[in-house]
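Narrative summary of target 7.
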Amino acid sequence: MPKSIFWSRTDTAGSEQVVLDDGHGLAARGTLLAVDPIPWTARYQLTTAPDWRTSRVEVEAEGSGWLRRVTLERAADRWRVTTAEQGNLDAALVAAGHPPAGLPGTDDPDRLADALDVDLNGSPLFNTLPVHRLGLAAQPADLPHRITAAWVLLPGLEVVAAEQIYTGLGPGRVRFASGTFTADIDLDADGYVVRYPGLAERIDPR
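Modeled conformation, tokenized:
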């Protein structure tokens, strides 16, 4: 993996570090850490096709007394979603005064049929997928692109279909919107997040 990127979370105590190869689509391995709603660590592996359509994502989330895993694989225009669980995340959440997360994965993968991208909650890396796939760097500014993403929630790893809008704002900037949430994201020359207001900032070596 010839590249490495590190982000510090700005919404909570946490971080993300990823190693990747983007010479032919994207192959990446990353780790996220956060303390909310309870302390957890997540590890992921991501593979895309040459056109940056997501082909496979595996995510494992772990905390005190629990571990969950979800794998999404796309083939024949459908997603196959498999899960595994050890321990009891919901019990840990309830004990800390939070609502339970529910089951990992999805009970109806067909709801994800229109999703060409996977979006891992809290990870700036995954915003790069539609940026590259849609060619936003070469698109006219202020042209919105409405997509469906397979959104993987952390730490529970529930997978839901999420409607999202990406709009290029000129070189090095893109607007992300989903529901009532909007953020203008700063990107580097390769389309990776430098600053995501309210979520994370890239930290480069000194």
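The helical segments are 89-95, 128-133.
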